[in-house]
Design brief:
By secondary structure, the protein is of the alpha/beta class. It is built from 14 helices and 13 strands. α2 crosses α3. The protein binds iron/sulfur cluster.
């Protein structure tokens, strides 16, 4: 679900694991063909991450079977934030089938079917339970979040954890999350509000999905990955990430020419925030300009600027900073760099919370 190669790797793992671990829920395909048929669409754009190519092939076949022309998007498909509406309109498609993610925002210009590609095999979750028992010894109450693919098993997993003697809390949808207990790499609205009442958080997904929460939660976060069968406590990784972010803030202070990056992806497009940050930077003597991109790539940006501000996917700064030779600061980090916010206050508000434009802009 994310704008970096790390996720391509995860997706590849996902695909391999799917062959022997998991099937996809049949009913989803039926709901899709029903949706297309009942709306009378004759040409749709199919958008999917590389790791879900097999699911996409099945979808394509099913749609062709009911006489629908399918055009594939060859662009990125990092998350529900990344809906290819411009491509669909250019290719004359009446609708988009977006595979692998839940709805993230309202896309107004083209109807979108979010084919979440949920798993139908509980096995990988059940295999995690004995290891979880070890890791969670001494904890009595935990919050639980899952990536969308596992959510059909939320209740069953909660019950199994209860059998281990744990009290398990799941949060209601909120932020960009549309399902109870759902998590994204950039949104933990189902879990963070429970931070003060639980002993630990359990994120079923990759380390990638848990780290964002570990950066903002006070309680330990465990990433339980059904594909690798690894359970990873994340407080140490979070501590190291914060140290690296602080170092980037310090480097940023020495820059003069700054690019404030705005993504064209519908769910990452924060032009107002970028313009506001440009003004703040200008007032502090930086030579800042807003730069609009489709993908945030180091090759295109590094030669032009001495530092970058990232108003697109927050995970780019967290996971992919090393791909950039220059600092790629999040909006809140910029305020620290220019002395308008303390580092401690930034941590209190949440370094990588989803699009902190509301509190950044005041
Ligand atoms: S903005 Fe959120 S949903 Fe979109 S790619 Fe980044 S982490 Fe994933």
């Amino acid at each position: 679900m994310h704008p970096n190669t790390r996720v391509l790797i995860l997706d590849t793992d996902l695909k391999e694991d799917l062959h022997w671990h998991c099937g996809m829920v049949e009913g989803e395909l039926q709901r899709l063909t029903e949706w297309v048929r009942s709306n009378g669409y004759s040409r749709v754009l199919l958008q999917y991450p590389p790791g879900l190519r097999d699911a996409a092939s099945a979808i394509s076949l099913a749609l062709k079977g009911i006489g629908v022309e399918v055009i594939s998007s060859g662009s990125s498909c990092w998350g529900g934030c990344d809906v290819a509406s411009r491509e669909a309109l250019t290719a004359g498609c009446e609708a988009i089938v977006h595979v692998g993610h839940a709805k993230f925002i309202d896309v107004k210009d083209v109807p979108v079917f979010y084919y979440e590609a949920r798993y139908d095999n509980y096995g990988p979750l059940s295999e995690l339970l004995p290891k979880l028992r070890e890791h969670l010894t001494g904890k009595s109450r935990v919050s639980l979040g899952m990536t969308v693919q596992w959510l059909d098993f939320l209740e069953r997993f909660v019950n199994d954890l209860k059998l281990m003697g744990l009290e398990v809390l799941t949060g209601a949808p909120g932020g960009h999350l549309v399902h109870r207990g759902q998590v994204l790499g950039c949104d933990y609205a189902t879990m963070l509000p429970l931070d003060s009442v639980v002993d630990a958080h359990l994120v079923v997904g990759s380390v990638f999905h848990g780290l964002g929460l570990a950066l903002i939660a006070r309680k330990e976060v465990y990433a339980a990955d059904p594909h690798t069968q690894r359970i990873t406590p994340l407080s140490e990784a979070a501590r190291r990430t914060l140290m690296r972010r602080y170092a980037q803030i310090e480097r940023f202070k020495a820059a003069k020419r700054v690019g404030v990056v705005v993504s064209l992806k519908p769910g990452q497009r924060y032009l107002g925030l970028a313009r506001w940050l440009r003004e703040r930077l200008g007032a502090r003597g930086y030579d800042a300009e807003v730069v609009v991109v489709d993908e945030v790539r180091s090759e295109e940006l590094e030669g032009r600027y001495e530092a970058l501000v990232n108003t697109a996917c927050p995970r780019l700064s967290i996971e992919d900073q090393e791909r950039f030779r220059i600092p790629l600061l999040l909006p809140g980090e910029v305020l620290v760099a220019i002395g308008e916010l303390s580092w401690e206050e930034l941590l209190r508000r949440g370094l990588a919370s989803t699009y902190p434009q509301s509190w950044v802009m005041g």
